[in-house]
TrEMBL record:
GO terms for cellular component: cytosol. Residues 7-61 form the HTH cro/C1-type domain. The keyword Metal-binding does not apply. One of its GO terms (molecular function) is DNA binding. Gene3D superfamilies: Jelly Rolls, lambda repressor-like DNA-binding domains. This is Transcriptional regulator. PANTHER family: HTH-TYPE TRANSCRIPTIONAL REGULATOR, METHYLPHOSPHONATE SYNTHASE. Keywords: DNA-binding. Pfam families: HTH_3.
Amino acid sequence: MNLGNELRRCRKQKNLTLKAVAEKAGVSEGFLSQVENNVKSPSVETLMSIGQALSVDVGGLLSRLQNQEKVFVFHTDEWREVDMPHTGFATRRLSPPENRAVIDSAVLFIEPGKSLPVRKDIKNGQEVLCVLDGRIELRHGDKVFHLKKHDAAHFWAEPKAQAIANTGKKLAVVLWVGTM
């Protein structure tokens, strides 16, 4: 259990939309989505507002999180719970921002015809992709690699000369790991 997952679980348990909770908490829908996906960490004040919008005891929630296991598991039956924003891709981080000083990891959901933005300000970083479902295209320098379900790639990050896109006809699900 981590903060983002727990907030999402509370929201879905109460059948609330991202938009409804965001409006009530006074934050943008995009920011709330990033908090739920462990891309951003809210300030204490913002967390209190989100907790009020969800009618959740934030103190109890943080206490449960403090006593959590140090392993994050993202089951395939949770994949369908991912909210796809207008950008056509979603990132479900496997660890909160404060645990990403050396390595980062996520499950990426990419709609057909959509691509991911490149990580910026990465020097000497490495990345690993493993296609869990669907098809993607990896452009790296002047080379193009087509990856399908169960294919994997390991490469040095080239932010100015790389792209990852879904070239298939269905949602692509990709495990991504990168050094910082």
